[in-house]
Amino acid sequence: MSGSWELWEDLARHWDESDLDDRFRAYAPRAITEYPVLHDQEARPAPAGPYCVVEIAQGFQVARYGGTRVKYEHLLQKVPLQFRIHASREDIVVKLCRQIALRFDGFQFKLPSSDVVCFSREDDFGVQEDDEHWVWVLPYLISLETEILLSR
């Protein structure tokens, strides 16, 4: 089975190859041009401009199949993943959410120990946390299939 670090590494690589950092920094205060945009699980302290936190939840088994005369068993697992976009206004988080979706819808993870069967976007939603802070959540569900060698 793939570790969540493998998902994070491939996702971060794809993010780095895109122009998403520049898209986020375009909405930052003028004096701030460099700050980390993408964060794993949390952002402490909160960056000065818009930023994104990626949360990869624990996967859960959906199916396990094989047969009595096979050497391998297959494990089908689902892993929830979400991008949490933070900014000072609703219109900004919505625009940045759209930019992430444009770059990640249809993204093909390249994992060494599992095949990604499906990477599907779920319903997104936004929340105003206080007068000057909005969060927009863009959730995905990753379906992984792993081939496991059975003991002899």
What would a concise description of this structure say?
This protein has helices at 4-17, 20-25, 90-104; strands at 38-40, 51-56, 60-65, 72-87, 115-121, 125-130, 133-149. The chain has 152 residues and is α+β, with helices and mostly antiparallel strands.
Provide an overview of this structure.
- With 152 residues, the protein is α+β, with helices and mostly antiparallel strands.
- The protein has one domain (4-149): Phage tail protein-like (STM4215-like, 2-Layer Sandwich).
- It is 23% helix and 40% strand.
- The protein contains 3 helices and 7 strands, in the order ααββββαβββ.
- It has helices at residues 4-17, 20-25, 90-104, and strands at residues 38-40, 51-56, 60-65, 72-87, 115-121, 125-130, 133-149.
- The longest helix has 15 residues, at 90-104.
- The two termini are 20 Å apart.
- The mean pLDDT is 88.
Q: Percent of residues in helical segments?
A: 10-25%
What's the CATH H-level superfamily name?
Answer: Phage tail protein-like
What does the largest sheet look like?
7 strands, mixed
Outline the low-pLDDT stretches. none
Helix and strand run: HHEEEEHEEE
Task: Specify the CATH class.
Answer: Alpha Beta
CATH topology: STM4215-like
Architecture, CATH level 2?
2-Layer Sandwich
- Report mean pLDDT, rounded to a whole number: 88
